[in-house]
Request: fold
Amino acid sequence: METGTETVKKEHFLYPGTLFAKKGEYTVTTILGSCVSVCLLDTVLKIGGINHYMLPLWNGEGLPSPKYGNIAISKLIENMLSLGSRKSNLKAKVFGGGEVLLSSGGILNISVRNIELAWEMLRDEGIPVMSSDVGGNLGRKLIFNTESGTVLLRKVQKTLGK
Amino acid sequence: MHKITDNELIEELKKRFEENEKTLTALKVVHEKIVEVNKKLQESEALKSNFLSNIRNEINNPLTSILCMSKVLAESGSQDMETVVSMAGSIHSEAFNLDFQLRNIFAAAELEAGETEMSLSRADIDTLIYSSIESFIHKANARKITVSFESLARSGAPHEFTTDPEKLQLAVTNLLSNAIEYSHEGGRVEIKAWIDKAVLNISVRDYGIGIDKADHKAVFDRFRQLDSGVSKGHLGHGLGASVTKAVVELLNGTISLESEKGKGSIFTISIPEAGEGGSVYSGDSNEFFFEVQEEKEF
Reply:
């Protein structure tokens, strides 16, 4: 949907457990540790959406919110479809699941399971993953442009003493 | 060609048998987990159906009261001032109740859709809590329940704190509503706020029916109202505690529960100040707390 005119980019800060998918050009910023973000882009309509989940699967406790990967990914796909996307035009980028060395077994497990869940669900949904940057021991700051689909990724480390 | 001896064959078979055994045990564990999760999901679905019938009462009852009382007020011109004031108070209290229930439902819907937006600002915590208490005065008075508040001002701390005030207020209102609901007639509810190392803590204590230790986790499940024994017949749709927990977690905080059956409950929420100490909620100012190691475009 190129308008040909200079428009002001709108900004959105994505909090953990929420998701974002809207028409128009937005830059969405989020910060990931062991969490994972799946970016979906519709290369035809030039719209994009992104989620930020903390745990892989909803286990029936609390609210079934996009804090959980299985809900976050299906909701994001659903939202893209309701914006007019066709599933066959969707492509994915996957980031996060880092900080694996920061803590013992617990975090390691969650990071890995968060990443695995993204691969599995996207494969089952038939959405190809164009690029990804996952795992490792650093956090990530993501700046996602919903129109162009580009993701500027900064690997970050928490500074000590803060 | 190497010919394997009988012994080698037996050893190999033994090894494979052990491996199979291990895989089987692991599968068994996974299977048990799946069965457990499945049970929970089924329960959640069943609770969801009950929720619809529960919510009907929650909305219908205050609405009916408001309609009746306002009709009486409008139709009888000769009411004395005292009655008018008292009825207006009741109407306000019922309308507040309705508004509160709806806010919980909308908050749950937003949280489940992942569409919750944060709106951070400096908020006067004491004023926020006082206004929550004020909205329950009618309900508390009707059951002769005293509500006391140990404010931040009393502890000498500054009462301003950066957070999402609307979300914090929803959490506090839910805790207060439950504390009053589950108190005995003539009981008391104590609220305390304090700040410790840029973390705001608010505890709400009641001396009511309490919660069995085995049920502590289930308290935060959606649509769940512990229907064991005495708590039956209490108002509520079982959404309040799960909304409170989700909202507090969205604010990067935690909620804890201390309670024993028959001895009342203490719910405590702890929320770090937004924008402080490298909190995820500081958005771009995170650059101050994170060292950039690498930059790349995807």
Remarks:
- Chain B touches chain A at residues 37, 40-41, 43-44, 108, 111-116, 118, 217, 220-222, 242-243, 245-246, 249-250, 277-278, 280-281, 283-284, 286, 289-298 (CB under 8 Å).
- Chain B has two domains: 1-116, 121-297.
- The two ends of chain B are 53 Å apart (CA to CA).
- Chain B is about 50% helix and 15% strand.
